[in-house]
Amino acid sequence: GQQLNQSPQSMFIQEGEDVSMNCTSSSIFNTWLWYKQDPGEGPVLLIALYKAGELTSNGRLTAQFGITRKDSFLNISASIPSDVGIYFCAGAQGGSEKLVFGKGMKLTVNP
Amino acid sequence: DGGITQSPKYLFRKEGQNVTLSCEQNLNHDAMYWYRQDPGQGLRLIYYSQIVNDFQKGDIAEGYSVSREKKESFPLTVTSAQKNPTAFYLCASSREREGQDTQYFGPGTRLTVL
Q1: Is the confidence at residue A95, as pLDDT, over 70?
Q2: Which of residues 21-60 of B touch A (CB under 8 A)?
């Protein structure tokens, strides 16, 4: 099946640093979603984006829906140890409930 | 509290046995989904259901079966025909609403076939 290109695949940062990750596709999406997954748990929705160009914040998280509708990015500011986990992007093309997922970005935060 | 529950959290089965994973939601969502997650991989769609008594195959349906007799429940059976069943299984649900495809996930079931 189709997948999104999510980069980077992993990041190691120091506590307090900012981190940025993105997802790209050759196809247009109508919805972009960002999830965080802790080990052995289900993904938890962080931010949902429904309009091209939309910039949305949730605490220290900021995500944007790319104007071309083919990409999205997620920023985490002032990272803390509990930010550790795997971050997934997902997109929906509309007309179907199926989501397309990126492979995830594993974040490690050193205290 | 509203949410999605999956049980059990861990499941062990012998090779050749069928096993059924439970997924229940009280969010009044119309659509429900089953995904499989392997280490270092993204989520792969097994089956999904948009309405009671109807479901469609996802990308990797072979060796799996589902039923949707009630809106709240979408059990997944991993049959003996599934060649590599050991994985983390995730259930999700979403509302049927145009332009709002947000899926919410359960806590997952880790299946180990010995």
Answers
A1: no
A2: 31, 33, 40-45, 48, 50, 58-59
